[in-house]
Amino acid sequence: MKIIIIFISLSLNIVSAEDFNKSFQDGNNLMEEKDFIEASKLYESILEVHPSNSDLYYNLGNAYYRSNNIGLAIWAYSQAISLNPRDDDIQYNLLLAKSKRVDNIKISETFVIFTKYIILRNYFSFNEWFFLSSISILILIITIILGNIFYNIKELLNYMVGLLLIINLLVHGITFDKYVKLKFEKKAVFIAQSVDVSSEPNLVDGKIIFKIHEGTICEILNQRENWSKIALKDGKIGWVKNKYYRSLK
Q1: CA 57, 60, 63: angle at the middle one, nearest 5?
Q2: What is the mean pLDDT of residues 59-87?
Q3: pTM for the complete prediction?
């Protein structure tokens, strides 16, 4: 019975992979035909089944960019870069799309060491950091075991254990930071061309305090019915309707 279940599961995975490849190629064909709107619709439908494919997000970003949907293009490229952070094409296209934004939000300078840390943290995806943390602790355990077996090189192995402990603390710390960021930090990209930001989560009591435009990335601080309290990198805070942005995972 277990063998039958495993066989069915494997068969479904093969069929799913074949369906993905066919649909993905159909989308690529639409891109070649310059039917960017239909291509984006097809890519979006594939995302409902395969939400963790960087190539799919990248092509979706291209389709949105070519159809002049800058906000949605930035959203798709941002999703792609989180899954494949070292891909040069994704990085270039994301920067290109961001250069088309109307808003030029200036942020205060940070310490160099903090900037370097952010670069290091973003160099790998969460899954890659998790893998590195698992490997590092495995190497540490093996080194400790070897130190208790080979007494003639125990001093060297003890030095290595100390070094590996520091590496483990660093890698596990970054992995935990990455997890907290993914789990609790809610970010979104505005997909409407222009959005009025209100002081209150309604149009009766609130007043318009500033405007933001397509492609701007914000942090979601709070949600109330169909409104969200958002914060920009420059410290501005206000309320917008949920329909004007698309959340980043």
Answers
A1: 155
A2: 97
A3: 0.84
